[in-house]
Amino acid sequence: MSQPDITLYTAQTPNGIKISIALEELGLPYKVQKIDISKNTQKEPWFLAINPNGRIPALTDTLNNQPIHLFESGSILQYLVEQYDKDHKISYPQGTPEYYAVNNWLFYQNAGVGPMQGQANHFSRYAPEHIPYGVTRYVNETRRLYGVLDQHLSTSKSGWLVGDRVTIADISHWGWVAAAGWAGVDIEEYPHLKAWEERMAAREGVEKGRHVPEKHTIKDLLKNKEEMEKKAEEARAWIQEGMKKDAKV
Ligand SMILES: N[C@@H](CCC(=O)N[C@@H](CS)C(=O)NCC(=O)O)C(=O)O
Q1: Does residue 13 have its Cβ closer than 6 Å to ligand 1?
Q2: How much is the pLDDT for 195?
Q3: Atom of ligand 1 nearest to the CA of 13
Q4: Do residue 113 and residue 186 come from a single domain?
Q5: Per-residue DSSP letters for 152-180?
Q6: Protein residue whose Cα sits closest to atom 14 of ligand 1
Q7: 13 is in which domain, residue-wise?
């Protein structure tokens, strides 16, 4: 196992905290570089050299004496466990049924929950006009995906998504489920998922990792309607600005 030389480029978002939570669960040393996505730092040339997609999270490391650049949270999580989780604290050995089951749920989050809930957030909070079809489509699709998770967790003996331990599949979902209310999804509809979210939140690694690069405030924010409106308005302004820039490319 090579010595970690990890820098995490991140912001306080559900995708960003996946990586800091995994790093904390693994007990790995890492440097943090905060990326101010409201200022479009993620679109600057130096950052695009690390992640051509111009989004956080990204991670750099030294692998076999060569610099390596990782982007896409799922790819970063797989890299971390393959390189540094030799004891399988948050993963399973390659080739086992559990290894493939983790992949199932990891891809489910990255291709399903993340994108759908992201669009639910967009249409519910950031769109310049209220488009009922967009809101309904993405909120309901997120609710459907939450229902699948809830049903699956109802059959889990350990309370985790795969086997007897917390894995990168759980870690990948947590920040999104903790922020369900921001997308207009009521977690109370999903008792098994709600209990899982609380079980995750009680872990030391989750508690440490969620406050990177700054305090994780979404759970408090969701209790304050006025603050939520204020936050949404601020975000709406820079998101719309960023979209205008992207459309010109
Ligand atoms: N599929 C990507 C999604 C990354 C993503 O959407 N990141 C957001 C923050 S959660 C971002 O960087 N947004 C800034 C932008 O779109 O310019 C992943 O899982 O890493």
Answers
A1: yes
A2: 98
A3: 10
A4: yes
A5: HHHT-SSSSSSTTS--HHHHHHHHHHHTG
A6: 55
A7: 6-85
